[in-house]
Amino acid sequence: SARAGGAAGGRKLRRAPGLPGAPRVSADPPSFLLVLPGVMAASKPVEAPGGGGTAGLSRWQLALVLGAPILLGAGAIYLWGRRAARREKGASERKTPEGRASPGPSGDGGVSRSPLGRAQAAKNKGNKYFKAGKYELAIQCYTEAISLCPPEKNLDLSTFYQNRAAAYEQLQKWTEVAQDCTKAVELNPKYIKALFRRAKAHEKLDNKKECLEDVTAVCILEAFQNQQSMLLADKVLKLLGKEKAKEKYKNREPLMPSPQFIKSYFSSFTDDIISQPLLKGEKSDEDKDKEGEASEVKENSGYLRAKQYMEEENYDKIISESTKEIEAKGKYMAEALLLRATFYLLIGNASAAKPDLDQVISMEDANVKLRANALIKRGSMYMQQQQPVLSTQDFNMAADIDPQNADVYHHRGQLKILLDQIEEAVEDFDECIRLRPNSALAQAQKCFALYRQAYTGSNALTVQAAMKGFEDVIKIFPKCAEGYALYAQALTDQQQFGKADEMYDKCIDLEPDNATTYVHKGLLQLQWKQDLDKGLELISKAIEIDNKCDFAYETMGTIEVQRGNLDKAIEMFNKAINLAKSEMEMAHLYSLCDAAYAQTEVARKYGLKPPTL
């Protein structure tokens, strides 16, 4: 089975191994994105700095704002200088006004007679009112401090403005908060409290772009040690991404994926009638024996012509030919509806696919294999739309109507992996293997599920057993590229980089036109040898093989951010956006692009940049 598809950020999983049209999982809440067989990372959940929970950091934090080497989709996360120290509560919450802005004797003696001393006294009085919850009186005192303070005392003035902003914040006067914080930042451009308070005010005022720039600056200044700042950035990026994707996706031109992608999709089904070659009786006598030539169909059927175009890899004509069969109410109407729906899904038009899938599912006199296949595809679509309950219902219904269909258990097993229901996933893979003992893909994915369970549980003995399981699979099925790929991801987790590299080479030997494998191998070079040139060379090779591989463009964009080439990164992310196969995937890519753009603005305004490779 070939692998195709893009990368996605992850909690515990990034990708389902092998589920066609399957969701990809990102940070909480999950973002389900379309992929094809076998592209799932095996990284442990990454604990957010300053947090004690198990929630993983989202992709923008790891790949962009952090500016640290992260290996996406390769099975492990490598963070240069990653730190997980907790921050003190006072440092993270930033709720109280500040004390003195500059060193000096305490009290009023001598100091209070100078303008600065009187200003400090007014500020101290304001702090007392603030702590007593008398915010209007505090504002009056801070205003007096501002008016008394000598204009050349920038740091003191900035503190007075920031303190007044804190009081306005308690009164929810967000415009005034933003204005006073702007004054404070003008006087002290690297003033973390003022930048973060202004970011929160911009959030309340729905100024998302400005909020993102401020919180990005804060994250860089804090060296990504404050979870509060990072969560705000994550929240704003998701909102921006969803807004932009909604508008862009609504007006996008449908885009047919590459032939490699489409063949990978269909290769994950064995009981899919519509992907089977034309039968002899469906070909004309004069052409059915010709080798290396496309056969002419015997009947005047739009569906059979569509099947012929599939064999020729002339995919752009399949929807129109299927439509002719449907409009003529021909004898292959159910097959044509399913074929048209499948290609609607492939070009990212789920709203057009759903009525066709609904109709096939409701055809009680249709071939049960067609109905079960339609349920698998509609279930995958629901997961893409973040509706796991409906998705589970469809997979369960498929198992009820066609209990001997191995595809149902294969794909439901991968759904269970995405839902962190590993034991149930293993049961489904076992049933798939019982029905289809020679299913190398199901064997490999069962090993991967067991490995994930052992790895996340930090059980060394079960990890060792799972690794041996991979060895058994590739020994029994030496031509299963998926087995080598999943084993390579597990080996990368275990930091057995040399052997992982060998496994990717095996994949390439078996599937030299699989762009995704080159991306994974390229990322491995970064993690293993910190070899940027080799990594980029392999990812460029992926694009050469498949110029519609969004995973390659996205990954290259991530690496360019880490190298400090933000303009190039934005260019790569935009290419990936134009290839996005779902609105959710597009939203994720916009988040990456917006994070990179925010860094360019922060660098321009404040001269701040995260560390680069």
UniProtKB/TrEMBL annotation:
Its main location: mitochondrion. It comes from Pardalotus punctatus (spotted pardalote). Residues 1-27, 88-118 are annotated as: Disordered. It is a single-pass membrane protein. The gene is Tomm70. SMART domains: TPR. This is Mitochondrial import receptor subunit TOM70. GO terms for cellular component: mitochondrial outer membrane. The keyword Iron-sulfur does not apply. It is found in: Mitochondrion outer membrane. Belongs to the Tom70 family. The chain crosses the membrane at residues 60-80. The keyword Protein biosynthesis does not apply. Pfam families: TPR_1, TPR_8. GO terms for molecular function: mitochondrion targeting sequence binding; protein transmembrane transporter activity. InterPro entries: TPR-like_helical_dom_sf (IPR011990), TPR_rpt (IPR019734). TPR repeats lie at residues 119-152, 372-405, 406-439, 481-514, 550-583. Keywords: Acetylation, Isopeptide bond, Membrane, Methylation, Mitochondrion, Mitochondrion outer membrane, Phosphoprotein, Repeat, TPR repeat, Transmembrane, Transmembrane helix, Ubl conjugation. Residues 88-98 have a biased composition (Basic and acidic residues). GO terms for biological process: protein import into mitochondrial matrix; protein insertion into mitochondrial inner membrane.
